Amino acid sequence: MNYIEFTETICDRVREFYQNEDCTVEIQHTLKNNAVSLCALIIRCTGEEAAPAIYLEQYYDMYKNGTSIEDIIEDITDEFNEAMEGYDINLPDLTDFDSIKDSIVCRLINTESNKEMLENVPHKEFLDLSVVFYGVVKNAEGSIGSFLVPDSLAGIWDIDAEELYSIAINNTYRIYPVCISNMCDILMEYMRMDQNAIPCSESELADEMTLSMYVVTNTVRTYGAVGMICKEALRAFAEKFGSCYILPSSVHEVILVPAAGCDNNMVRHFERIVQDVNTNGVPPQDVLSWGVYYYDKESDEISKLNNVMSDDVFA
C-alpha cells in the first residue's frame, strides 16, 4: 500500500484498539522546519489539553522493510503509553506573558527554506539564518513539548522581535547551556552507547582531522546549533585555538575547525562535507545551512563564506 493508504490504515486500526477507551484518534499533518510536512497520529484522551504526536514516516519505512501492521500497531501503542507517563501537564495561559516569559527560548533555522513560515512569526535574521522563538511547556519532571511563537501571540504580548530575542537568548543559554566537545570524544561516546558498534580504540579513531574538529551543541543535544551565535563560547574557544571555521551539521549542532593551518583546498573540502551531510546524513527538517561560516577572533564577528574562497580569510 502507498503512504496515504498506510496512514489511513494505521489510524483506523489504532482507533479500533482504543475503541473502548475515552479518547480520540486522528491524523494531523504538521509543518516542520524547512517546510517539511510530517504526518502524525494524535491519540488524545478526553480532558487532556495536550497530546503526544506519533510521527508515522518511520513506521512506513518499517512497513516497507517487512514489518507487519500488527507489530507496527503494537509499537505505536507502546510509544504512546511511554509518552503518556508523566504527561500530566496543564498548558499555561499563553496570553499572560509574565507567566511564560522565562520559558521562551531560541532556535536557529535557515531563512530561505522557511521564508513562508517566517512571514507569520517574529524572528531575528543572522546572515542567511534566522532566530525564531519557542515556548517550552514543562511538567514536574522537565520539558515535555514546545510551541512556535507566532506574530499573533507576540502581538497580544505587545512585544517585538528584538525584545523577544533579548529575553529568549538568555533563557536559552541558561536552560540549555552551550557545550563544546572534541569530535573524537563524541564519537567514542556514541560507540560506547551503541551495542552494535564495531570496537575501536581511541587511537584508531583519533586521526588528524577528527582531532581538529569540535562539536557545538547544548546539554540536551537538541536544537543546539544556536550555540554558534554565542559570542562568549566562541571567544573562549578562540582563546585556545584562534579563529575558526563553522560547519553547520544540523539544527542540533555545528562543528568548529581551528583556522590555523587551513588552506583553500581544505575549506573547499569543508563545503563538500556540509553538502554531503545535508544530503545523506540528516533528515530534511534538520538541515541548517549549505555553506561554511568563519569566526574571526580579532573582529569578534561571524561571516558566511562565499563558494569561491579568497586567500584573505585564512589565518
Uncertain runs: 190-210, 307-315
| Large-scale geometry | globular
Tell me the structural class: alpha+beta
End-to-end span in angstroms? 56 Å
Query: What number of domains?
Result: 3
Determine Rg (CA atoms, Å): 22 Å
Structure annotation, total helices: 12
The residue-averaged pLDDT reads 86
Order of helices and strands: HEEEHHHEHEEEHHEHHHEHEEHEE
Task: List its traits.
alpha+beta, 315 residues, six-stranded antiparallel sheet
How is this structure best summarized?
The chain has helices at residues 3-17, 57-64, 69-84, 97-100, 115-118, 151-157, 161-175, 183-193, 202-205, 208-211, 231-241, 264-281, and strands at 23-31, 37-45, 53-55, 104-110, 123-126, 129-139, 142-148, 178-182, 214-218, 244-250, 253-258, 293-296, 301-304. The chain is of the alpha+beta class and 315 residues long.
Q: Describe it for me?
A:
The chain is of the alpha+beta class and 315 residues long. The protein folds into three domains: 3-84, no CATH class; 97-175, no CATH class; 178-313, no CATH class. It has helices at residues 3-17, 57-64, 69-84, 97-100, 115-118, 151-157, 161-175, 183-193, 202-205, 208-211, 231-241, 264-281, and strands spanning 23-31, 37-45, 53-55, 104-110, 123-126, 129-139, 142-148, 178-182, 214-218, 244-250, 253-258, 293-296, 301-304. The chain has a six-stranded antiparallel beta sheet, with helices on both faces.
